[in-house]
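Work Package 3 (structural annotation) set out to generate three-dimensional models for the target panel prioritized at the project kickoff. During this period the team completed the workflow that converts sequence records into discrete structure tokens, so that structures can be stored uniformly alongside our sequence database. As a representative example, we reproduce one entry of 329 residues exactly as it appears in the project archive.
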Amino acid sequence: MVTPCAIFVSILTCLVLAASPGCSAQSSPSTTPQTAPSEKVVIDTDIGDDIDDAFAVALALRSPELQILGITTTFGDTETRAKLLDRFLGEVGRADIPVAAGVPTPPKAVLTQRRYAEGGHFAKSSHPDAITFLLDLIRRNPGEITLIAIGPLMNVGAAVDKDPDTFRKLKRIVMMGGSIKRGYGDMGYGPPHGPEPEWNIVNDIPSAQKLFAAGVPLFVMPLDSTQLKLDEVKRAFLFRQGTPITDALTLLYRQWGQETPTLFDPMTIAFLVKPSLCPVQPMHIRVDEKGFTRSDPGPPNANSFNAQVCLDSSPDAFFRFFLNRLAAP
């Protein structure tokens, strides 16, 4: 007969064995979660005039899913743009990220945040050439790099011209650019007003045409899905967080000197981290001589698409994601 005492001893023995590290390791497989590898990215930006580029870089820095291999500057005074990035990255503790400058072009926009770029003590005296920098990274990481293009496409076109075979070894390109059905100010509250030439495309039409013909997987966030207004309530929430990133954004916003930013560029980062925020559909996009991004059936007898395009997004869903990311400790 089994006595109550024997039963108690048996239960106690089982509990002790279950609590033993050695026993638990042998009796059940490890349940430690495996961290997904981060995606290698390079950001190509015209940071320094409109403010949305700074918010895009900030979102990338707050996204552990991304490994930022470098940031390149494009369009206009590329050296000053690079110095702005030097200070921004230094002040948020990411001076380890290299910055390269593209070939300067005649300025078409005022660098509203020039004083920020010329202040601080992080600015480097010179920066490597953006095209050489990008192509070298692709050669060292073939098929692994996503290029995030959030400025006019001078660097992209130059890289295609210099070494098209290496350029095609990009994993993909995610870009803010174009206008398919809706132009500036068309917020989607009624029937589309029709497309118009968009800034990043129209400032280097030949480079845009080269990009859409390059054969690299291309994901496009046009005006249709990126006119995201950072209103007063959202700004107040963000700027009172008092972190190094939000403090830097606050200062850059004050120097920008306008009231309500439109966060076109951050949608590219949001799409990379959470693709459901900007669902894409396959299209064939042709860039015409005026800078319009036309959706057409494609070349004769070619049953293929050259881009995945996001035509609609939810501002509420985007800002829930965006503000939580930037405000997180």
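The mean pLDDT is 90.
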